[in-house]
Amino acid sequence: MTATCDVNSGSDVEVVPDGCSPSDSTSDEMFPTLLGKVGATKHKGCGGCGNAGRKESALQPVTTSAFELFKVGIGPSSSHTVGPLVACRNFMRDLVFEGFLDKVAQIKVELCGSLALTGIGHYTNKAVILGLHGISPAEVDTASVEPFLEKVANVGKLEIGFGGGEPTDVKGFREIDFDEMRDIIFSAEELPLHPNGMICLALDTEGQELKQVTYYSIGGGFIMTEAQMLDATPHATQVDVPFPFSSMSELVRVCRRENLSISAVMRRNEEARRSPQEVDAGLRKIWQVMEECVNRGLAKEKAGMALPGPLGITRRAPDLYEHALSEDQEQVLTGLMDEMRWLDCYALAVMEENACMGRVVTAPTNGASGIVPATLTYYMRHLRHKQREQRRQDPSTFLLAAAAVGILAKERACISGAAGGCQAEVGTATAMAAAGLCAVLGGRPEQVEEAAEIALEHSLGMTCDPVLGLVQVPCIERNAMGAAKALNAVSLVMKSPVTRRRSMLGYDDVLRVMKSTGDDMPAKYRETAQGGLAADYEAALERQPDRWKEVQEMMGASRIQFGPRRKATVLVKYEEVSHLDVPRPPRDLGKC
Q: What's the whole-model pTM score?
C-alpha cells in the first residue's frame, strides 16, 4: 500500500494529543454535487485518536487541556474557519521567525477536500486572509471583518506578518500584492492524511519557493502539520498532573478513590498547568463569552434578520425568546414545552450568531457550539435558583465536567464532522452538555458518565450534510435538538436508582463505536455537502435553472478545481510509517 503526499516541516502553536498518526485512504464512489462530480477520498481513523481501540492499559493519559478544547473564536466552523485561520497565522509566524518575511512577494494557499467543497459556505477563504494578516481567532473584531476584506479586495494589497506572542516574540509585517481569486485555490481532491488539508506556499520575486507547509485541520480548531501527522513522537506538551486518566472508566475510578467529583479532578489537573486564579479566570471568561453570545443572539432588534447566503434563512431566536417571555409572564402551563422553549431560544441564538461569523466558543466545535452554552444558560437562569443554596454550582463545575467528556472524544474518537460525521460534533457536544448538567445537579461521577453515554449513544450515525456548505441547515436546529437530548439524558439518569447502573454500555464503549461508525461513513456524509439533505436540496434547485445558476455563482462553484491536483513529490510507503503505534489492520492507519 502506498499514499502520495508532500512531506513538509513546520511547527505549530496548537497542542496535539499523543498517539497521532496518518491515515490510509481508499477511493470512494463518484456522486453528483452542486460543484460537479468528485471522487472523494475516504479516510479511516483519526490522527488525534489513534489510541481508540487499544486496551486501556496501553493508552496514554489524555493531554488536552480544557482551555484548548474551549477556545474563543469566530464562526461558522472550527475546522473550516478557525483551523485554517490558525494554520495561516502559524505559517506567517514561521516565515517571520525564519527570516523569510522580507523576501516574500506572493503567498498561495491551496484548500483541499472538504475545505474546498464547503469552503465558501464556511468562510474558509475569509479565514485564510485574516490568518495571513497575523490575527488570532480570539482577537478578531467581528464588526471589522467585512470592511477589512473589502479593502483588501479593492486595493489588491494585503499586509502579511505576525505580531508576536508565544512561542516567539519575533514580529514583523510586509505588504504584498494579493488577489483572492488567484492566491486562494480550491481543490476538490483530498490530501492523504485527513479530509481537511491545506497547503501554504510563500514565493519570492522570482517565483521561487521560500517555504511550503501542509496543514491539516483535524476538528475543533486544532491543527497539525503533515510532518506531525507522520511523526510517531508525541507533540503535546507533557505536564505532570496529579490525576492522569486515559479513559472515562479510569477517570471514574480516580474519582471513587480520591472521593472527588469529575469536575474536581479536572480542576486539580488544570491547576498543574496554571495557577488556581488563572483557572478560575479562564473558566469565567469562557462562560462570559458564551453568555454574551446568547444575549447577542436574543437581541430584539435582530428579529427576522437574514442570515448570510442564498438559503433565505432568517433569525428566529429573538422572536421565540420574546414569545417565551410573554408566556412566562402569563404563567401559561405548557408542560415539557415550558422547559424546551428556553433551550431552543438559547441554542438558536448561539448558532445564528455563529452563522454570521460571530464570536463563539468552540464546544467542542463551532458547528456544535450552541448545545453547551444553551444547556448551561438554562441551568443558570432556570434551575440554579431552585436548588438549595448549598447545592448551587457555578459555571466552572459544568464546564470542567463537560470538558472531560469532550477531551476523551477528541483523543479517543473524533470531533471532526469531515472525519466522523455530525455524530462527532453535535453528538460529542450533546454528551458534554449532559455531563455538565448532571454534574451541577449533583450527579455522582457514575451518573455523569452515564448521562454522557446516553446522549452520545443516541447520536450515533448522525451525518454531516450542510446544505450548500453553510452552517445553517440542518446545523442550527440540530443544536437545539442536541440540547433537548442532553436534558432528556440527564432526566433518565437522575430519576434512576443511584445504586444500580441502568446502562449496558460505558462512555468508552460508545466512543469506540462512534469512531468505527465514522470510519465506515461514506465521504458524501462527512461535511462535503454532497449527500443527504444537501444533495436533496440541490436536486430541487436543478429544476429551477435560473436560480440554480445564481446559487452556484454565490457559492463559488466555479472556483473549485477537480481532478488530480498535482504530481506527488514524495512517495510514502506503508513500510515507512509502520512504526506508528496504531491498533488497526495494515490498511487502516487512522486519522482525526
A: 0.85
